[in-house]
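Researcher: I'd like a structural prediction for the single chain below. Treat it as a standalone chain; there are no partners to consider.
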Amino acid sequence: MDRPLQKKKWTPARIIIILAGVAFAYLIIHLVFIRDTRSRMYVDPGQLSIVSVLRDKFQEFIPVDGIVYPKSTVYIDAVQGGVVEEVFVEDGALLKKGDPILKLSNPNMELSFMETETRIVEAINNLQNSKIDLERNKIFRQQEIVDLQYRIDQTTKDFKRTEVLYSDSLISTKEYEDAQRNYDFTLKQLLISLRLQRLDSLASVDQEKQIQQSIRRMYDNMGLLHKNLELLYIKAPVDGKLSSFNVEIGQTKSQGEHLGQIDLQDGFKLQANIDERYVSRVYTGQEAEMDFSGKTYQLAVHKIYTGVSGGSFPVDLLFTGEYPENIKRGQTIQLRLEFSRPTEAFIIKRGGFFQTTGGNWIYVVDPSGDFAIRRPIRLGSQNTYFYEVLEGLKEGEKVIVSSYEPFGDKEKLVFK
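Model: Treating it as a single chain, here is the predicted structure.
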C-alpha cells in the first residue's frame, strides 16, 4: 500500500537560496551602511614620523640669537681735529682714567691759540694798569678829602674866634657880617667839594670791581684756550678696556670723528633681533635664558628699541644673576625668550604637518597600528620643540607629524 511522502522543508536547494539571499542582503547593508567610503592611500609607515601625545611641562618661548656686548661703553671722539702724531696704546689695552691714548697735531689751531693768548695777556696788562691808576686816584681822592676836612675845621675855628671878638666889641658889625658871609660861603663850597670827592671814591670802587671781573674772565678764557689745546691729547675718560681702536700715525682725524671706545669691566649684555610679529608681546623685564658651557644663565629684557628694520627690532638683555666669565665681545649665543611659565599640557612634537594643516587637523594612528585617520584638532602655543594641544587628542595616542604634502586630501592612510 502506497504512503504519501512528506515534502522536506529544508532542501539543499532551498538552503542555498536562503543563504544566497542573506549574503546578498548583507552585501547591500555593507555597501550602504558599513563599508568605509573614506578616501584612502597606502603608505609605508617606515617613511613617516610617528610620535605619541604626551602630558608634560610646556613653556612657550622663541629662540633668538644674541650678540655679546659690554654692559657699559664710553665712546671716544676727536673733539678737535688734527693729524695723528703719536699713538701710545694698542687696541685691547686695559686703561685707567686719564691714561694717554694718542696725540693729534693741529698747527693752525696752535698758532691761533698763541695769537689769542697774546691778545688776552695784553688785555690783562692793560686792565692791571687801569687798576693801578684807580688805586692811585683813590689815594689822591683820600688826600683831597683829608685836606677839605682840614680846611672846613680851620674855617670853623676862625669864624668862632671872630664871634668871640665881636661879642667883646673888639670888631665892628660890618667886619663880623663880612666874616660870617665868608664863612658860610667857604663852608658850603667845602662841603660840596667833600661830597664830590666821596662820590668819585665810590665810582672808583665800582670801576675797580668791574676791572677785577674783567681780569677774572680773561684768565678763564685763557684756561679754556689751554683746555682746548689739551684736547689734542686723547685720554681715557674712564677705567676700562680699549676696543674698536684702529688709528695709525699720519692719519687725519676730523672734529667729532669716532676714534674708539672704552668698554667698562662691569659685565656684559646681549643684543638680539626679534621678529616684528612679537613686537606686542615683548616687554621690559621679560625673562630669557641661555645655555653656555653646560650651564644655564638667566637674563631679562632691559631695553626695547622702537625702530623696526628688515622685519625685526632689537632689544638689549642683561644677566639677572651671574654671567659666564669666558664669553667674549662679538660672540653669538642662542637665547630662549620666554612668553609663559611652565604649565602642565598635552603636547606633540613639532613637524612638517603644520605647514599643510595649519594645526587644524592631524592623522591619528589607530590602536591596531594598521592605519591612520584624519582628525580635527586645535593647537595653542608653540616653542622650538613642541606644540601645545588644546583639543582633539588624548595622552598616549600616536600621531603622524611628518610632512603631509604627498597625501593630498586623503582621509585615511593605510599602512602596507
